[in-house]
Amino acid sequence: GIGTSVPPPPIPDPPVASKPRALPKSPEAVAPRPLVVGHDRTEPIKGVRKAMVKAMTAAIKIPHFGYYDEVDMSSLVSMRNELKETATARGIRFSFMPFFLKAASLALGQYPLLNSSVDEACEKLTYKVSHNIGLAMDTPEGLMVPNVKNVQSLSLFQIAMELNRLQSLGENGKLNTTDLTGGTFTLSNIGTIGGTYARPVINPPEVTIGALGKIQILPRFDGAGTLTKCHILNVSWSADHRVIDGATMARFSNVWKAYLENPSSMLLDMK
Ligand code: CAO
User: Which of 2, 32, 81, 248 to pair with 192, CA 20 to 30 A apart?
Assistant: First the structure.
């Protein structure tokens, strides 16, 4: 009743094992105990979540083509460590995202179809001049997709500065309409949380999205057949199969991957 409090049951001491017990072959049967706390709660879907309902309901009508690959990031991991020191000295956080975005922009230069937009009826394809690359951002308010404008004309450091700005706005719920609209292509670095492969959903009217997994240290054979320690990143692309064929997606992915695997080659093609 009110005012009386039931003390919690004492926590039993763990059993002292005299000799190691063999592991049970299957989980031991435990009588289920109902655990009911509080009441079910219903709330209206609003704000960022409501925007997600609208965008994703439209997106899922698109026939998605999935293409997956792995990228050896070993060279890039050491290059990033060097550049990170310089960037930190300039007061800028420097993650892998500037490389992912720049490599995407360089590859989009070769495959501009993947930087196009389609109208809702899918009757017109617009090739976009700017590479406004969106990044899925996990913010306190939920999923937001701000974009870095004109990645094709920014240096890695300028991309990093812009990402720092967008990230701090995102953390404080202050992203504005300009930052959130006009994207032409999206990357989702879910690898900051974990995972390998994903199945990203296209952000219409864009036609391509890539999801990046967590960079893992794994054994791989090099060209000479020697087993080496590698930093492996998994990428999962989704493309709008109404307008993008699988071969184009695969060729684009190969170019993007080659830039990341040979990061100094990016210097050759950067403007
Ligand atoms: N694998 C391993 N480590 C990674 C990594 C990856 N794929 N990506 C980033 N890291 C590292 C960074 O280098 C950094 O380490 P250092 O301290 O050594 O620099 C650390 O993880 C933290 O990175 P960060 O989060 O500060 O910065 P970021 O630029 O890499 O990522 C952002 C920014 C916005 C992409 C990320 O914060 C985020 O929100 N990710 C989730 C995206 C998401 O929700 N996707 C799903 C969308 S669909 O619902």
Answer: 248
Interface confidence (ipTM) of the complex = 0.96
Using DSSP's 3-state secondary structure scheme, residue 15 falls into coil
Domains annotated for the chain, with CATH where assigned, are 47-262 (3.30.559.10)
Residue nearest to atom 8 of ligand 1 (CA): 192
Is 69 catalytic? The answer is: no
Tokens 């996990």 correspond to 138
Q: Going residue by residue through the chain (271 aa), what tens digit of pLDDT does each one get?
A: 344 455 666 665 655 555 555 555 677 777 777 777 899 999 999 998 999 999 999 999 999 999 999 999 999 999 999 999 999 999 999 999 999 999 999 999 999 999 999 999 999 999 999 999 999 999 999 999 999 999 999 999 999 999 999 999 999 999 999 999 999 999 999 999 999 999 999 999 999 999 999 999 999 999 999 999 999 999 999 999 999 999 999 999 999 999 999 999 999 999 8
Could you tell me the CA-to-CA distances from 236 to 56, 158, 161, 191 in Å, in that order?
Answer: 18, 26, 26, 11
Instruction: Report the Cα 97 to chain-centroid distance in Å.
Output: 10
